[in-house]
Design a protein that fits this description.
The protein is mainly alpha-helical. Helix 1 crosses helix 2, helix 1 packs parallel to helix 4 and helix 3 runs parallel beside helix 7. The longest helix has about 40 residues. It is globular.
């Protein structure tokens, strides 16, 4: 039976809070394309995803072991270090959720853990080989591999179905998309719930509650699975909107190709113990499927913002984790101060989110409402207005002769060539 101290209990509760944010932050990974193509109703989609996330949590512990035994030196880690790491991860998750960016919860967690470990015990506390081979390299390779696979799968599905277009074919792909979404949800539970299991296990080892090298206890697996399932059911509607309609326009067969490719990559990585970002995989697959359809487009302004968030995730969470660890070293008062800061910052972010409520009733956004990228905005600022706009401006500024009909007053303006405005 594990012996718990107060700080250990706080760490476990905070880890489950992170797992909850991971759930609603990553709901889009499994269900955004399914919802955007109309294959499933939003609330039913998140309910199915939540159930399969819970089931997936029991399928493997390889990723949990990567976190608890491989990334940092468990012998030099205190429970306060893990608490500080979780603070960095939770705040980054909430900030990116607020702006609707599908960043990696996995990398936020690992960034917070690395920053807190370095602040506590120096750079020697981080196993660089594990960081490179099981975190950084998969982060680069995952979206590329999933994107190429989805692009090829999309083109194959369109080529194979050229003679079978029709409502029956679309219904068939919608059914296939539901099945592939279920597979992604199962894979997400298998990969992401394990990260919280690994963190809790690491905390238990650091607090002396279980022996070094232990696998996650059953209660840890169950509680982590329930927390991520509940978060998934709540639904990260802001990120679902970005992933489902802000990145590209998807048809059912594209959604099917994207989700099947993503699920295959995630399950393979879980089996190998790679702490893969499901967000990176699914985003890459969605972009690949967008490019795989003839005439399909990817909104690169959105993709660019997502990429920037991906690059910033590890260092940003690491900085917050390191800062939180520096404060916890002041003693119990420092730990309490960090806890109060986390609660206050989370409440503030939630209050900001209420200014524009996004839920299952308005999650499908109009793609035309997607903001223009920097290049597009700059070109629009220096380009001459169209002829119609010139005519309207001149009509508004040239006064009509007294007693002249409105049509005659407009005629001179219509005949003015565009060069007259230069």
């Amino acid at each position: 039976m594990e012996s718990f101290s107060l700080i250990l209990a706080i760490v476990v509760v905070t880890a489950l809070a992170f797992d909850f944010t991971n759930g609603f932050h990553d709901t889009a990974n499994a269900m955004a394309t399914t919802i955007s193509t109309g294959a499933m109703k939003p609330k039913l989609a998140v309910a199915m995803s939540a159930t399969l996330n819970l089931v997936g949590a029991f399928l493997s512990v390889e990723v949990a072991n990567t976190i608890s035994k491989g990334l940092v030196d468990e012998s030099g880690i205190r429970p306060e270090v893990i608490f500080a790491a979780l603070v960095g991860a939770i705040l980054w998750n909430l900030l990116t959720w607020l702006v609707g960016l599908p960043s990696s919860s996995s990398h936020a967690l690992m960034g917070g853990l690395i920053g807190a470990a370095v602040a506590s015990a120096g750079f020697g506390a981080v196993h660089g080989g594990v960081l490179v081979t099981k975190v950084l390299l998969p982060a680069v390779a995952a979206p590329v591999v999933a994107g190429v696979a989805a692009l090829v799968a999309t083109r194959l599905s369109y080529n194979a179905g050229t003679k079978t277009e029709g409502e029956a074919t679309r219904k068939g792909f919608r059914v296939g998309q539901v099945a592939s979404a279920a597979l992604v949800s199962l894979a997400h539970g298998t990969n992401d719930a394990q990260k919280t299991m690994g963190v809790i296990t690491l905390a238990l080892i650091a607090g002396g509650a279980i022996a070094p090298g232990s696998n996650p206890p059953t209660w840890v697996i169950l509680s982590a699975g329930l927390a991520i399932a509940l978060g998934t059911y709540i639904g990260g509607w802001r990120i679902i909107r970005t992933m489902g309609t802000g990145l590209t326009d998807l048809e059912p067969r594209q959604g099917f190709a994207a989700q099947t490719s993503a699920a295959t990559a995630i399950l393979a990585s879980s089996h190998l113990g790679f702490s893969l970002s499901t967000t990176h995989v699914v985003s890459g697959a969605v972009m690949g499927s967008g490019l795989g359809r003839k005439g399909g487009v990817v909104r690169w302004s959105t993709a660019t913002r997502m990429t920037v968030a991906w690059v910033l995730t590890l260092p940003a969470a690491a900085l917050v984790g390191a800062g939180a660890e520096a404060v916890t070293e002041l003693g119990d008062g420092g730990t309490a101060a960090v806890a109060v800061f986390l609660v206050a910052a989370s409440a503030w972010i939630y209050k900001l989110s209420r200014r524009e409520v996004i839920d299952h009733t308005n999650v499908i956004a109009d793609p035309a409402a997607e903001p223009s990228g920097v290049v597009t905005t700059a070109i629009a600022a220096v380009s001459p207005p169209p002829t119609g706009a010139i005519t309207e401006d001149l009509t508004a500024t040239i006064p009509a002769p007294a007693g002249a009909p409105a049509a005659e007053a407009a005629a001179p303006a219509a005949s003015v060539p565009p060069a007259a405005t230069v």
